[in-house]
């Protein structure tokens, strides 16, 4: 990131990328992005600009003179395609940053996705809702609840006036409303909104899909705060089982396939489409959700060995797929230890845990000596 102070020609108004106030600094890498000051330039760079800097150049350069209608139509189609790619990239990045807990950094990504969505689809389109929801969730994470209400109200109004709105978008809306009411301490309303989230996610993806698991997880967190540990535990178990099944399928595919590129994100797009792999945001969600459940289970006064073994095995698979072999072996050892301490007749998962442990070259004797 570099600075380039501007001396704006008279009559030329350049606006800050983040706040739309008069800009006095230019990005020297793309030269098509401007800021009111160093603080906003740094915030945008860390949030999204570093990833899209060069991609913005063809989108913001003056249009060339084209003499024929065919040329103009081709250019329009090309630019629309690029803008749609930018919408997908900025939304995925914003959602990933939210799962990682970087709420402030998620805002620039969400603002970019909103701008491109408005440019492509117009001000009243349902396509704007995912961007409003990222902005709403970021505001909740930052404790700006009134601002979150405004974003979510805009999203809700757009959903209500769009009869053809998909269940997937409705699910995300109700999830964010659930998070908002939970942040306010209104747990009854939070549970109502999260129940709607689970209903619509189940309608779109099925009740045992990773897209639905997020609703169960946030519902469990609400019951946890209400000290209803029996209900929270059953919901955390459901979340773990959903991710366990999904990652097991990816593991089976990985072990049957010779030498694949590292990672399960955009770098292996062909495999992702065929096998239902994870994008960057889903990877971040899995890391955040599954580690939270693991930490909770480890801290329980009365531990459930099978529950701990299951979450450790699920994390083993996740980190194996992410090529983080140190963490995969760490959780594999924990899974072996926990499953071996389960009561007789209740260690049904030991076989599958041992199979992956063999792939990672983790042996029972190694697990026994490692805490």
Automatic annotation (TrEMBL):
Disulfide bond keyword on record: no
Domain of life: Eukaryota
GO molecular function: zinc ion binding
Xref: Gene3D superfamilies: 6.10.140.2220, Tetratricopeptide repeat domain
Domain MYND-type: 16-53
Gene: LOC118430424
InterPro entries: TPR-like_helical_dom_sf (IPR011990), TPR_rpt (IPR019734), Zinc_finger_MYND_domain (IPR053248), Znf_MYND (IPR002893)
Protein name: Zinc finger MYND domain-containing protein 12-like
Organism name: Branchiostoma floridae
Keyword annotations: Metal-binding, Zinc, Zinc-finger
């Amino acid at each position: 990131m570099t600075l380039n102070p501007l001396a704006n020609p008279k009559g030329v108004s350049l606006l800050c990328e983040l706040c739309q106030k008069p800009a006095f600094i230019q990005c020297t890498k793309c030269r098509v992005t401007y800021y009111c000051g160093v603080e906003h330039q740094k915030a945008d760079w860390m949030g999204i600009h570093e990833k899209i800097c060069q991609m913005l150049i063809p989108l913001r350069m003056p249009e060339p003179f084209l003499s024929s209608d065919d040329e103009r139509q081709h250019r329009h189609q090309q630019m629309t395609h690029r803008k749609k790619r930018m919408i997908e990239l900025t939304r995925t990045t914003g959602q990933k940053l939210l799962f990682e807990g970087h709420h402030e950094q998620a805002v620039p990504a969400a603002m970019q996705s909103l701008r491109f969505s408005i440019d492509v689809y117009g001000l009243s389109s349902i396509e704007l809702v995912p961007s409003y929801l990222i902005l709403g969730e970021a505001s909740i994470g930052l404790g700006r609840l009134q601002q979150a209400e405004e974003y979510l109200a805009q999203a809700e109004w757009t959903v209500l006036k769009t009869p053809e709105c998909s269940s997937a978008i409705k699910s995300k809306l109700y999830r964010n409303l659930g998070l908002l009411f939970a942040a306010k301490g209104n747990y009854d309303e939070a549970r109502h909104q999260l129940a709607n989230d689970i209903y619509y996610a189940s309608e779109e993806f099925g009740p045992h899909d990773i897209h639905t698991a997020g609703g169960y997880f946030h519902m469990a967190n609400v019951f946890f705060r209400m000290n209803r540990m029996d209900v929270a535990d059953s919901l955390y178990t459901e979340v773990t089982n959903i991710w366990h099944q999904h990652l097991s399928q990816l593991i089976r595919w990985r072990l049957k396939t010779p030498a694949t590129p590292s990672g399960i994100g955009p770098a292996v797009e062909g495999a992702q489409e065929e096998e239902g792999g994870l994008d960057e945001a889903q990877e971040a969600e899995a890391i955040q959700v599954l580690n939270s459940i693991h930490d909770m289970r480890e801290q329980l006064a009365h531990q459930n060995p099978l529950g701990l073994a299951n979450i450790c095995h699920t994390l083993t698979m996740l980190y194996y797929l992410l090529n983080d072999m140190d963490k995969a072996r760490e959780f594999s050892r924990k899974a072996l230890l926990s499953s071996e301490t389960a009561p007789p007749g209740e260690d049904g998962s030991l076989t599958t845990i041992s199979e992956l442990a063999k792939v990672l070259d983790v042996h029972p004797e190694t697990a026994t000596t490692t805490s």
